Amino acid sequence: MNKDIATPIRTREILEKYGFSFKKSLGQNFLIDTNILDRIVDHAEVTKKTGVIEVGPGIGALTEQLAKRAKKVVAFEIDQRLLPILKDTLSPYDNVTVLHQDVLKADIQTVMAEQFQDCDEVMVVANLPYYVTTPIIMKLLEENLPLKGIVVMLQKEVADRMAAKPSSKEYGSLSIAVQFYTDPKTVMTVPKTVFIPQPNVDSAVIRLLLRSNPAVTVRNDVFFFQVVKASFAQRRKTLLNNLVNNLPNGKEKKSLIEKALQDSEIDGKRRGESLSIEEFAVLSDHLSKAFL
Ligand code: SAM
Asked: Which residues cross the membrane (predicted)?
């Protein structure tokens, strides 16, 4: 029986056998610590009834631990060079499917419908490529996929922004976008030493459990996010100034914006970063009367 993939010795053996060289541009930092991997799978509460989507299996370090505990794992890998390696390293597991696809272009809805019929729930579990962390998470959330949750390794700084509360320096449009769909919690911080090669930034694991309904109900989701984005456009400016300068035709509609702020009982001199998600919802509903 082979040792686990995620040990320093076995990982080096695999890399040498295939003459694999890391591509920084694809965010390739592989995990070499089974203890960390076990904890990630624990936090995802993966069981024999769980279907798992993995983004970027690499040489299969996390995939292997998921395969041992999940009903089924479907992994999206963009790097063609890893496919023969994965075929070899994951050969002991018959519940893994590797798809050679860019996850950002993949039709995940269809893959889920085809692959996870016999699973009770689906989780996304991954050590994400750091250069595309936010687009991947936003795609998973905005496509309204029938997921139970997402448990992923990412840059600590991004995890902090996702879970940030109003009036903190990390709070911004990403916090609101993620908290609209999920209840985020950073469950682990992870030292650089558990990767090869070691990344330049600190890492963390975040758990995003999907809400059954969005955190707030708004008249128009797209406009709500437009208002949030506009409010954070220049953090040092007041809310009123940001809305006037960054909503379409905001300058001409200044008096309507002031009225919407009044109707929402929100002082336009406040900064966007002080508004809760509920306040943004009330404000965007009042503003939508003038803009939609
Ligand atoms: N899961 C492995 C581990 O933990 O050791 C590898 C993680 S590594 C941080 C990220 C992986 O994502 C790499 O294998 C990389 O090739 C892959 N990747 C990068 N961009 C991708 C994309 N757009 N779609 C799918 N996979 C991608």
From this structure: none
Backbone angles phi, psi at 288, to 5 degrees: -60, -25
pLDDT-derived band at 158, boundaries 50, 70, 90: very high
CATH label, 221-291, candidates 1.10.290.10, 1.10.3720.10, 3.40.50.150, 1.10.8.100: 1.10.8.100
Domain residue limits, the chain: 8-210, 221-291
- Ligand 1 center from residue 288 Cα (angstroms): 40
| Domains 8-210 and 221-291 fall in the same CATH topology | no
222-257 pLDDT, tens digit each:
999 999 999 999 999 999 999 999 999 999 999 999
Q: Residues in the chain, how many?
A: 292
To the question of whether residue 37 is assigned a binding role by annotation, the answer is no
Confirm or reject: Cβ of 108 under 6 Å from ligand 1: no
Any residues with CB less than 8 A from the CB of 117 and at least 6 apart, and which? none
The CATH class for the domain spanning 8-210 reads alpha beta
Integer Cα distance of 94 and 90 in angstroms:
8
Token output for 43? 């936090």
Mean pLDDT throughout 166-170?
96
Nearest CA to ligand 1 atom 12: 56
